[in-house]
UniProtKB/TrEMBL annotation:
Protein name, as recorded: Ribosomal subunit interface protein
InterPro entries xref list: RHF-like, RHF/RaiA
SUPFAM superfamilies tied to this protein: Ribosome binding protein Y (YfiA homologue) (SSF69754)
Superkingdom field: Bacteria
Native source organism of the sequence: Candidatus Jorgensenbacteria bacterium RIFCSPHIGHO2_02_FULL_45_20
Coiled coil: none
NCBIfam families: yfiA
Signal peptide: none
One Pfam family in the UniProt entry: Ribosomal_S30AE
Amino acid sequence: MKINIVSQKLEVTESLKKFIEDKFSSLARLASALEKEGELNVFVEVSRITRHHKKGDVFYAEATAGVPGRTLRAEAISSDARTAVNKARDVLRIEIQKYMGSRTNKPRKSARAAEK
């Protein structure tokens, strides 16, 4: 799994980059079946919504994964960059699980219909 990190209006420090790679590498286990069909690329964008706001939800994280037939996307807004990354990772994990479930359920549904 390849993780591409992009930032806007925010400097990505080495510690933040390592944090993002650690968090999204946990998805590699989940998406190992997808990697058999080709390498899974995950694009992670971390940014500040505005430069002039100092408080509140000003950090934005977006994660996009291209899977066969679809593009899975997750976004999160938080008051801390690391929290936004965690939320985006959790949403993307759920999206991958839904996609993997739909891949296994479609052949079963057609097999059930053929039995009748």
